[in-house]
Amino acid sequence: MADDMEQWLYLFNRGEDFQSYRRLGAHQVGPAKWRFVVWAPNAQAVAIVGDFSGWQPLPLTPVGTTGVWAGTHGGTTGQLYKVQITTADGQTIEKIDPYGFGFEPKPGTAARLMDLPRHDWRDAKWLAARAAKRPYDQPMNIYELHLGSFMRHEDGSYLSYTEAAAQVLPYVRRMGYTHIELMPLMEHLLDASWGYQLMGYFAPTSRFGAPADFLAFVDAAHRLGLGVIMDWVPGHFIRNTDTLAKFDGTATFEYQDPHRANNVRWGTWNFDLGKTQVQSFLISSAMFWLDYCHLDGLRVDAVSNMLYMDYDAGKEQDRNQFGGRENLAGIAFLKALNTAVFAAHPDVLMIAEESSAYPKVSAPIDLGGLGFNYKWNMGWMNDTLRFFEMDPYARRDHTTLLTFSFMYQFDEQFILPFSHDEVVHGKKSLMHKMPGDRYNQFANLRVMFIWLMTHPGKKLLFMGSEWGQFLEWRDWSQLEWVDLNDPMNRQMQTFTETLNKLYRKTPSLWAQDHTPAGISVTMADSPEALSYIRWGTAANDFTVVVMNLMPTERQHFRVAVPAAGTYTVLLNTESQHFGGTWTRVQRTLHAQTGDYRGQPASLEVVLPAMGALLIAPVALTPRAAPAGLGEADSMRGQD
In the predicted model, is pLDDT for residue 630 greater than 80? Predict the structure, then answer.
C-alpha cells in the first residue's frame, strides 16, 4: 500500500492531484474497517481519536517522506472522530479531518465516519443539454439563495435539503429563473459568517441534513430545469484553533509569514496559495463539488483578495519581489484552478467575484486572462444603485452613472448582480433604497429591474427582492413572506415573474450579451430618458427598450427603431396589473420611415411616468439590421 500511496502522493505534493478527496481523509476499506490518511508534514506523531476508540489515540504511520500519515482502524459509519497531532515541540492537539465528508452539528467540529456520499443520479438529460449549449448565448437569470433564511419552520428551525427541494425549487422555477446560486453550503460553524468562514471543504453543512440529501437536492433542481451554482471560498478559512489553523502545529494551510496569513478584514487566515499541497487541496475541493456533486458552476468569492498583496487592511504597502501589487502566487493558483476545472468540465461556470479593474478576468489563459468565463460587474451594480437611490429630480446631472457602463460592457463577460451584500448591514433592501412614497418606490424598482434584465450581461437577484421586501436581509430569520399579504408586494412579484419569463423567451435579450452586435444605444444623452435596441441573431429579432427616469408622463415621445412597420408593446411597467396606474396599455404602434438618432425609422409612444416599455416588431419592411455595426468583436471565455 505504501508504494502505491507514494505514487499518488507525489502528485499531491506537486500540486497536481485534483481528486485528492478520493485518497486523503477517511475511506471505508472493508466491513467496519477504515483507512485514515492525513497530511501533517511537520507533526511528530499523528493518531485518530473517536467514538470507536473511546477517544483514545489510534496511531497512524508516516508514508515515506511525503508528509502524509496513514493507518487502518475499525469503526462504524456515522461515528465521530478527530485527528490527534503531536507537534514538533511535543504538544498534543486535536484537529478536524480536512477531508471529512460530513461533520457533527455545530458547535462541534468532529467529522463523521462517512465515505463518499452515494446518489442514484437521474439528471443525465440535464447534463447532456448543458454540454450541448454554450452559456454565452443562452438566457441566464440567477436567483441567489441563502438556504438558512429563505424559509423556516414555525419554530424557527431550518428546512432540510429534502424540504427545500420540495418547497424552494418549485418556487424558483415558477418565478422563471434559470439557476439558483447558493451562498456557501460547505460546513461552517458561525451562522453570522453566512458560510464564508469555512472548515469543511468537502462536506455539505449538516444544518440541513445528510450529504446524500444535498446530492438529491441538486438532482431535483436539474430535473426541474434549474442549474445549481454555489459560492466557493478558496482564499481564506476560519480561525478556530481546532480546524485548519496551524494544523500540524505549524503554518500548514496558511502562509508562514503571520502578516500575510492574517486576514484582518474578515478575521480569517489566508491560504498559502503558492504551496503545492494547498493547491491540490483547494482544486480537489472545486472538483468535488463540480464532479461528484454535479454542480453547474462555482462563484469564486473574494478574488481581489487573491490577486493583490495590498488588498487587506494593514497591507497597503505590501509588494511582490518585483515591486508590484500583484499576488503572483494567487494569480498562478487561479489560472491552475480554471485550467483544471475546464479540462474536466468545459461546460460549467467559473464566476469571479472580483471588485477591481484587473484585466481579462474572464478571458482564456492563452489570451492572457485568468480563465474564468464570467465576472460579477460590481461597477455596474454600484453605479446603478447610486443612480436609483437619488431623488428623480437630482438624477438629471447623473445619468452617466447608467450610460458609463456602455463604455466597458464588453471588456469582460459580465454577470449583473444585485446580491446579498447590497441588502444587509444597514444598506436597506432594494425596495427601501428607492426614493419617494411606497407607490414611487415600487415604480422605481420596476424600472431598475428593466435595466437589469435588458442590459447586456447575465443576471443575478437576491431572494426577497423579487417582491420588494422592505426589511433588509437578516440571516437569522426567514424572508418576510407576510409581505405577500399586501397587494403591492404581490403585484411586484407578478411583475418580476412576468419579466423573467419574457426574458427567457426573448432571444434578443440574451443571445448576444457579450458582443457589440447585441446592442444599439439610441438615446444616452437625455437627462430624463434612455433607449436602446437589443439584437438577437435572427432576422427581425430585436427588442426596443425605453426608460423614463423621471416621474412625469411623456406624451408623443419619439423612439428610434430599425425599420418602418407595426410594433407591439410587450411590457409596460406601469400596467395596473403590476401595481402601476395604467388601466389600459397601448399595444399596437406604427413606425414611419425617417432617420432618427441613427436609425432609419421612429415611432411615437406615451411614455409612462417613472416607467419603461419593451417594444417588439410585428411586421416590418424592409428587414431590420443593426445600424452601424461591423463584425462582432467578442471576447469569449473557456468554450
Answer: no
Is residue 463 within 8 Å of 143, Cβ to Cβ? yes
Residue 247 DSSP symbol: T
137: DSSP letter? G
- Model pTM score: 0.95
**What is the rounded distance in angstroms from the CA atom of residue 234 to the CA atom of residue 304?**
12
Task: Please compute the mean of the pLDDT values over residues 502-521 and round it to a whole number.
Answer: 98
Residue 196's H or E segment, with its range, is none
DSSP state at residue 104 = P
- For 446, the grid coordinates are 420596476
As a whole number of angstroms, the distance between CA 397 and CA 400 comes to: 8
- Can you read off the three cell numbers belonging to residue 115? 465515505
Instruction: Tell me how far apart the alpha carbons of residues 511 and 456 are, in angstroms, rounded to a whole number.
Output: 10
pLDDT tens digits, 350-374? 999 999 999 999 999 999 999 999 9
pLDDT confidence of 639, banded at 50, 70, 90?
Answer: very low
Q: At 11, which CATH number?
A: 2.60.40.10
Helix orientation angle between 438-454 and 487-504, rounded to the nearest 10 degrees: 10
Cα radius of gyration rounded to whole Å, the chain: 27
Q: Which of 353, 383, 422, 574 is catalytic?
A: 353
Cβ count near 562 (within 10 Å): 25
Measured CA to CA in angstroms, residue 169 lies from 219, 328, 409 at distances of 11, 41, 32
Look at residues 66, 96, 112 and tell me which one is the last residue of a structural domain: 112
Alpha helices in 258-377 (DSSP H): 258-261, 276-287, 303-307, 328-344
| Domain boundary, last residue among 82, 112, 142 | 112
Helix (H, G, I), strand (E, B) or coil at 221: helix
Contact between 338 and 370 under an 8 Å Cβ cutoff? The reply is yes
Q: Quick check: 615 and 589 in contact, CB under 8 A?
A: yes
Burial of 427 (0-12, 13-18, 19+ CB in 10 A): middle
> Which residue in this structure is represented by grid cell 423614463?
548
**C-beta of residue 255 within 8 angstroms of C-beta of residue 261:** yes
- Cell readout for 282 is 483547494
pLDDT at 626: 67
404, part of any domain: no
Contacts of 549 (CB under 8 A, 6+ apart): 392, 395, 399, 447, 527, 528, 529, 530, 610
Q: What is the DSSP letter of 292?
A: I
353 is catalytic: yes
What is the enclosing helix (H) or strand (E) of 13? helix 2-14
Are the C-beta atoms of residues 312 and 306 closer than 8 Å to each other? no
On whether residue 22 sits in a domain, the answer given is yes
- Residue at 466 is within a domain: no
- How many domains in the chain? 2
pLDDT digits (tens, 9 = 90+) for 252-265: 999 999 999 999 99
Q: Report if residue 171 sits inside a domain.
A: no
Q: Of the listed 301, 312, 354, 422, which one is catalytic?
A: 301
CB–CB of 406/454 below 8 Å? no
Contact 50, 75 (CB under 8 A): yes
| pLDDT surpassing 80 at residue 558 | yes
> Within 13 Å of residue 545, how many CA atoms lie on the same side as its CB?
27
For β-strands 141-145 and 179-182, DSSP reports them as: parallel
- Alpha-carbon span 160 to 490, nearest angstrom: 27
CATH of the domain at 594: 2.60.40.1180
Phi and psi based region of residue 286 (left: phi greater than 0; alpha: psi -120 to 50; beta: remaining): alpha
Parent domain of 551 = 516-621
